[in-house]
Write the structure tokens for this entry.
Amino acid sequence: MLKNSYSENSYFAYWDEIKKELLGLVSPHDMFMWIDRISFYDFTPEKKILRLAVPNHFIKEGVINFKEQITNILSSISGYECFVEFVINTKEQENVFNESNGDITDSTSQNTPTLNSKKMVEKKSQKFNKSESFKENNFDDYSFESFVAGNSNKFALLTAKAVAEDPGIKYNPLFLWGESGSGKTHLLKSIEKYVKEHFLSKKILYVTSEQFTNDFVYYVYRINKPEQLRIKYRTLDVLLIDDVQFFAVGGNDGKGKTGTQEELFHIFNTLYDDKKQMVFSCDKPINEVKNLEKRLRGRFAMGLPCEIRSPDYELRVAILKTLSTDANINIKNDAIDYICSNFIGSIRELKGIFSFINEFSIQNKIDTITRDTAISEFKNIIVHDIYASPVSVDKIIQIVAEYYHLKPHNITGNDRTKSVALARQISMYISRKLTGLSSPQIGSHFGDKEHATVLYATKKIEALSNNDPKIRNDIETLIKKISN
């Protein structure tokens, strides 16, 4: 454990120790993609606040997910309760290069991913001009136009648009849920932007659950003026709250989470009665959020629940093509297929990988990324073991076969009878929904079926589940069995 007697200029050792602890807590991918992008900025002993630097807004959005772990480790090694803040330091990237000799400096190389050390000796002044404009246009532009839609998120996009175009009338409240990095924040901020542009007189506010809790603490406990909190929130026309699951894990109000939840409950009632629009996001269905007051959970469940699923192969391709076009990088189709077939993760993680690719192309003055380049330079950050998922295609086939009183070889074979064909298509549909594998990867489990066959089966079962209650019930039952 570190001693508490660091000199003012030695607090950077806190971050060194935190990184060592994180090595055993986060995956190598997260360590490489996020933690290694963070560096020490400063520490304020009086307030016990450690500030960490990140190079841009996008990285900040990603590393926020590790804030609680970092804070806990910091408090443990320092011996007292501490706080962590992230600041954007655009000079962080410039410091990677030693302007005197073109080499990467020792101090910053520890916090910067190594793309290709022999080729990354170009000075910042020699970079393509596209770098900054790409970051501004893609990482900070939250709009419906910049949201790339696919089967996994199209319904969420349509409902968010409907809310923005007619706030307080349709889908009130709207409850968006999906894993971290799926695009929930993008849709909330797109609603905010649209309303601000088209309804100038409406009062709209976007906050995270942490910001709401901080407001509650400030107005209620610090300045003892709860009426100002009510004025701020209860007079809104549109309220957008991100990541409501954090209301269930406690707060910093000194009295646990009860006060914050109770205030939100009353704000909800006021806005709902006044027909004001509310949109909430969460990382799971509301009925799975533990330690949330029953009456508040019931309020969240009153409106339209809308899931944003993990991006499928087609959406990953669409996102990568959109990003590469905006950044003026030519990624060959076979390279895109390699990346999207082997990468399994959230949209945020895919953008993180592209940020890596973009930086690589800038530093090496490469405008075209080939499959060979992707394999040689990016394999370590994009290739996952396709069988590492706790839900495998083989498991899905086995359970679907048992459910329909068939044998697995019936489903993977070429039997075209109606009952077998339906079971096969349902297996493909569930595989797309639960595993995140590409169509070619799934097809390989069904007798090397082509990409088009898997895509057709997915669309057919999706349509059937929307219109046939029995099929929908079968799929829901099967997913529960498979997920257990």
Strands lie at 39-44, 49-54, 83-88, 174-177, 204-208, 238-242, 277-282, 304-307, 330-331, 368-369. The chain is about 50% helix and 10% strand.
